[in-house]
Amino acid sequence: MTTSSAVVLTGAPLTVAEVVAVARDGAPVRIAASALEAIAASRAVVDALAGDPVPHYGISTGFGALARRHIPPTRRADLQRSLLRSHAAGSGPEVEREVVRALQLLRLATMATGRTGVRPVTATTYAAMLDAGITPVVHEYGSLGCSGDLAPLAHIALAATGEGPVHDADGVARPAAEALAAAGLAPLVLAEKEGLALINGTDGMLGMLCLALHDLGTLLTTADVAAAMSVEALLGSDAAFAADLVALRPHPGQATAATNLRRLVAGSPVMASHRTVAEDGTPACTRVQDAYSLRCAPQVHGAARDTVDHARTVAERELAAAIDNPVVTVDGRVESNGNFHGAPVAYVLDFLAIAVADVASMSERRTDRFLDAARSEGLPPFLADDPGVDSGLMIAQYTAAGLVTELKRLAAPASVDSIPSSAMQEDHVSMGWHAARKLRRGLDGLTRVLAIEVMAAARALDLRAAGGLPPAAGTEAVRRLVREHVAGPGPDRHLAPEIEAVVGLVRSGAVVAAAADAVGPLA
């Protein structure tokens, strides 16, 4: 895990970049003194109410459908422990380390607002676990995205008390108590309200949204790079990407995508060939427009960008939130509320899954055009070396098509579903966790579809160059990058390792970096 500069929690909103830095890159976490003071102040409010004979939800009562039972002081430590044990009820495969770290960080960030009523030691223990690389085991299933991501957060909180399994900084599975001791940390013994404060939040779905926004920034620029390579290698035109034409429909994402495409194919002999004139003054090229998957790339990629911008706005609002139930208000009240409902986050997670599926669908259509001799403008069938003996990239397109089919299924919204729970107390839930989980699978699928297009386009550019039409500087830089990892045209080879190699180049951002090195920064 690579570390970077510390992320300081002040009670102010975190940024998406800070979430990624801690979750993925292992940046250390610090809690500002002012935040610790705010935490202590709200804890004093809870302590005062703990002795009140009047019941207060989450402090001296049961939870959910059991909220009407008053719990005597002698049983409240048992109440907190029982809450975590019973709610740590996840099942299925373990979720990724970066997702768990995002969960830990975002719950800690809410504590730092001073609105949850936890003790300072609870917050500092969470920070210390993050810095020590102690990652509780959290399972795929267990959250309905309402009353917070209850089960995932309960697994984390339970580990902080010394129970349940974790992975240490080296990824080794260990009992929580053992890992805490090795890090010099004492297990938490929770006081009134703390168990509830540690599990009431949209932190899982929000953390996955932040990671997705970061990854989509690279993937949508990669989609522009892949499209530029395809437009050029299929002898398409950049005329439809002209700034004045794009400005007639003033969507900002469309303008960004078109600008990228123009820069990537600038200086291309293919583009120049469409503007040549014969000796008699007639155009040498009679093509007037390209297929939609080429000509409309700015419109589709741009719409996806605008969707990301909307999702980022929602994420930033959620990062500014202090989500708990009950919550300690600024003026010292402890009030029940519904801010834990995940609908705002769930909606944009589903929206992004739609955009991911559509960008991938267009990419696959461009790949397919390379392989069809009737539409590839003179390229050999399936880009094969000896068609008939060789199948070329025929089955790579099958793989892309299968991925797109899966992405279309994953685009079906989770947030329109709801299964009542907790004896009908929680009778409408967001399913935001599920929306986030399927978006993560969708991002992996988009990465693979774009990689297959880049691989096909690189081979086609090689064939065009052999015929006397070299690529533009931007597309040539990517073709060279691919050739550093995958051999050029020739007889059939084992294709799966080559696909995985290009998948790695897309996922790491190397494809975008290579293009940007040649033409300047891409948006």
TrEMBL record:
<comment type="pathway">
    <text>Amino-acid degradation; L-histidine degradation into L-glutamate; N-formimidoyl-L-glutamate from L-histidine: step 1/3.</text>
</comment>
<dbReference type="GO" id="GO:0019556">
    <property type="term" value="P:L-histidine catabolic process to glutamate and formamide"/>
</dbReference>
<dbReference type="GO" id="GO:0019557">
    <property type="term" value="P:L-histidine catabolic process to glutamate and formate"/>
</dbReference>
<dbReference type="Pfam" id="PF00221">
    <property type="entry name" value="Lyase_aromatic"/>
</dbReference>
<dbReference type="InterPro" id="IPR022313">
    <property type="entry name" value="Phe/His_NH3-lyase_AS"/>
</dbReference>
<dbReference type="InterPro" id="IPR001106">
    <property type="entry name" value="Aromatic_Lyase"/>
</dbReference>
<dbReference type="GO" id="GO:0005737">
    <property type="term" value="C:cytoplasm"/>
</dbReference>
<keyword id="KW-0456">Lyase</keyword>
<comment type="similarity">
    <text>Belongs to the PAL/histidase family.</text>
</comment>
<keyword id="KW-0369">Histidine metabolism</keyword>
<dbReference type="InterPro" id="IPR024083">
    <property type="entry name" value="Fumarase/histidase_N"/>
</dbReference>
<protein>
    <recommendedName>
        <fullName>Histidine ammonia-lyase</fullName>
        <ecNumber>4.3.1.3</ecNumber>
    </recommendedName>
</protein>
<dbReference type="GO" id="GO:0004397">
    <property type="term" value="F:histidine ammonia-lyase activity"/>
</dbReference>
<dbReference type="InterPro" id="IPR005921">
    <property type="entry name" value="HutH"/>
</dbReference>
<dbReference type="InterPro" id="IPR008948">
    <property type="entry name" value="L-Aspartase-like"/>
</dbReference>
